[in-house]
Design brief:
Helix content is 35%, strand content 18%. A seven-stranded mixed sheet has the order 1-8-7-2-5-3-4, sandwiched between helices. Strands 6-9 form a two-stranded parallel sheet. The chain has one domain. It contains eight helices and nine strands. Strand 3, helix 3 and strand 4 form a beta-alpha-beta unit. The chain starts with 17 loop residues before the first helix and ends with a helix. It has 231 residues and is an alpha/beta fold. Helix 1 crosses helix 2.
Length: 231
């Protein structure tokens, strides 16, 4: 009899346990932070804007694969990042992401398991992280922003915390040769209007990074965030 396929989208609060807390600490706050401090000069602006509770969603712009571990390294709480389901089809990568607390999501159809997992995250001491662009962008531009993150915030009644990242796309190896700036914006309060939340996020990210938002033509795959989010 075939072994049941493990689900990487459905998580409960107990999943974000001491093991994953310590694993993220060792990997991100120790190993990645060592690399970051040796290679980059990191400047963090706006820490006073971080809420004391975890009833918010961290929503940064996305430039590099370095972004998730970097944010986990500098944040006071552990972060559970939402990752595209395709990454969990890669054998070694899937357990690495799983151990770090990430969970899979179908970006074109945010189902009930996604909402349930987010609710469970808030039952733990972790906080949720989402990249509204869905994939890595080009420095100087903000493209590919959908309303999925705003829809998830509406369903879970969470606020949005915009975070601007500058310089993480520059791959460096020479000590102290790079510069990364992380700017934490003002909380965008819970709102049922998805378009309003999306526009406020774009507005703040433009201010935080100096990047320019580029409107793309809508297509079926981007406009459809799933009945659960848009309904």
């Amino acid at each position: 009899m075939a072994k049941p396929k493990k689900m990487y989208s459905m998580r409960n609060a107990s999943h974000f346990n001491w093991f994953r807390t310590m694993w993220q600490f060792v990997v991100c706050k120790c190993l990645y932070m060592l690399r970051l401090k040796l290679i980059y000069r990191i400047e963090i602006i706006g820490k006073e804007n971080i809420p004391e509770n975890n009833s918010y969603i961290i929503c940064p712009n996305h430039l590099s694969t370095l972004d998730p571990p970097m944010l986990a390294a500098v944040w006071s709480r552990n972060i559970a990042f939402m990752a595209k389901k395709e990454l969990f089809n890669i054998p070694l990568l899937r357990w690495w992401l799983d151990w770090l607390g990430a969970f899979s999501v179908d970006r074109e159809n945010l189902g009930p398991s996604t909402v349930k997992t987010v609710e469970e995250i808030y039952g733990s001491k972790w906080v949720l992280g989402i990249f509204p662009q869905g994939t890595r962008g080009i420095p100087g531009e903000i493209k590919g922003v959908t309303k999925g993150f705003a829809g998830l915030a509406r369903l879970t009644k969470c606020d949005i915390l915009p975070v601007g990242i500058i310089g993480s796309n520059e791959a460096r190896w020479k000590p102290f040769s790079g510069k990364i700036i992380i700017k934490i914006g003002k909380i965008i309060p819970y709102n049922k209007d998805l378009e309003l939340v999306k526009n406020k996020w774009i507005e703040q990210i433009q201010e935080l990074t100096g990047f320019k938002y580029i409107q793309e033509e809508d297509n079926a795959s981007k406009s459809k965030q799933g009945e659960l989010v848009n309904g």
